[in-house]
């Protein structure tokens, strides 16, 4: 196909969404794409990333899963996915629930700043605003041997909960252990966006009420990065101006709430490329393709925001009631870490997209038929 006849696509950002889009558009011979990233160097953020079944599905579809070395994947020896433990000063460590998802955890490289601060979204939806949510994540990597030298330390994927904050510990294999903490922080950290260095003092401060195992973990960390978390309201659409499609964090500014943003990003890229290819095959316009993409992804994000509303309701109860430490932890785990939203991790975008495209084909055929019928009636009358 002559170059001038090709659809020219600019992909802004080479995070999971941009790279997924590049892979998927690379399969379409009628597309000429370029990928742009503001970063001049590829550097390691220094964190692990959980890969849920929906993410693995996309990595398989994109033929990218074979590039992930088995040495960089961690699955706990007892095969559970995630365990939640509460830890108060007085009580001993208690495993309070098991997640039923089948996540695995790999080392992750990325470049900054994050797409949640997207300039493309600001261009497409200038009235939309995001803001700092009052929470900051801190991450550090510690040699595995040091963490496992802590007496009775569970070598798994563990969230250690306080009433509002948590510490996450996860073996990354290859001799590294990830320690991530998520804490309420005042707005002055909001200037920092993604992967800036933090001091040990600010990293250790929120955990003074946690028990000795968590304290021991925190004290092993010598090098910390911080990630101020931002979010904004749901966008009414993930497409704009007939030619702009938002993918990844740009399309759903909800601050990594489900620990599955890379999966959502790959699903977006897949659905977008499929929709553009669908429009091309049928001789429809690019705008038609983007509308189909929007019909697939906007309702999905609407459902996710409903889950966040439920989380907010759980937080409101926590603020109102005078819970003890243990009651508060149990309440938070019930309200936010139950199985109600695990469907997100099993979501099958291929199936959802296929059904949406079939429905749209059917709608167009019905429209066409009724249009022809009305012409026939007009001529007959
Ligand atoms: C603390 C934390 C933990 C998380 N844990 C998980 C997890 O366990 N599992 C999971 O699946 N997800 C997780 N996520 C979410 C996941 O990291 C994101 O959802 C995912 O990286 C989004 O991909 P993206 O491509 O949309 O954006 P990003 O990864 O943010 O990539 C954006 C890219 O765009 C580039 N860019 C930015 N501005 C410009 C510009 N103006 N011009 C050109 N390029 C630009 C950046 O350099 C970057 O390369 C977590 C997020 C956070 C904050």
Automatic annotation (TrEMBL):
Query: In its UniProt record, which GO terms are filed under biological process?
Result: secondary metabolite biosynthetic process
GO MF annotation, one: oxidoreductase activity
SUPFAM superfamilies referenced in this protein's UniProt entry, alphabetically: FAD-linked reductases, C-terminal domain, FAD/NAD(P)-binding domain
Q: Which UniProt keywords apply?
A: FAD, Flavoprotein, Oxidoreductase
Q: Which InterPro entries match?
A: FAD/NAD-bd_sf, FAD_monoxygenase
Protein's name according to its UniProt entry: FAD-binding domain-containing protein
Which species expresses this protein natively? Answer: Talaromyces atroroseus
Q: What is the lineage of its organism?
A: Eukaryota, Fungi, Dikarya, Ascomycota, Pezizomycotina
């Amino acid at each position: 196909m002559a170059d001038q006849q090709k659809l020219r696509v600019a992909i802004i950002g080479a995070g999971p969404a941009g790279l997924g889009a590049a892979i998927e558009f690379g399969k379409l011979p009628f597309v000429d794409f370029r990928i742009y990233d503001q970063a001049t160097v590829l550097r390691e953020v220094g964190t692990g990333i959980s890969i849920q079944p929906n993410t693995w599905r996309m990595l398989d579809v994109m033929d990218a899963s074979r590039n992930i070395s088995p040495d960089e994947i961690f699955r706990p020896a007892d095969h559970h996915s995630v365990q939640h433990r509460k830890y108060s000063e007085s009580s001993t460590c208690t495993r309070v629930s098991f997640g039923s998802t089948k996540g695995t955890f790999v080392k992750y490289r990325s470049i900054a700043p994050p797409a949640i601060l997207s300039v493309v979204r600001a261009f497409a939806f200038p009235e939309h605003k995001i803001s700092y949510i009052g929470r900051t994540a801190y991450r550090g990597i510690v040699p595995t041997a040091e963490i496992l030298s802590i007496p009775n330390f569970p070598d798994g994927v563990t969230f250690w909960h306080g009433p509002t904050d948590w510490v996450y510990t996860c073996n990354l294999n290859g001799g590294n252990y990830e320690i991530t903490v998520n804490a309420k922080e005042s707005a002055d950290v909001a200037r920092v966006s993604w992967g800036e260095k933090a001091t040990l003092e600010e990293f250790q401060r929120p955990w003074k009420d946690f028990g000795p195992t968590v304290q021991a973990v925190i004290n092993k960390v010598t090098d910390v990065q911080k990630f101020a978390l931002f979010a904004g309201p749901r966008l009414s659409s993930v497409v704009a101006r007939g030619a702009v499609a938002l993918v990844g964090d740009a399309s759903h500014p909800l601050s990594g709430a489900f620990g599955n943003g890379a999966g959502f990003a790959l699903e977006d890229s897949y659905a977008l490329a499929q929709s553009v290819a669908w429009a091309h095959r049928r001789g429809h316009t690019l705008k038609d393709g983007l509308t189909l993409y929007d019909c697939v992804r906007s309702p999905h994000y609407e459902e996710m925001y409903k889950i966040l509303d439920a989380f907010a309701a759980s937080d409101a109860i926590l603020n109102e009631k005078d819970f003890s430490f243990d009651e508060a932890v149990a309440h938070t785990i019930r309200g936010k870490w139950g199985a109600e939203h695990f469907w997100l991790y099993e979501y099958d975008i291929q199936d959802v997209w296929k059904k949406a495209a079939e429905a749209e084909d059917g709608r167009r055929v019905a429209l066409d038929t009724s249009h022809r019928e009305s012409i026939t009636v007009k001529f007959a009358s």
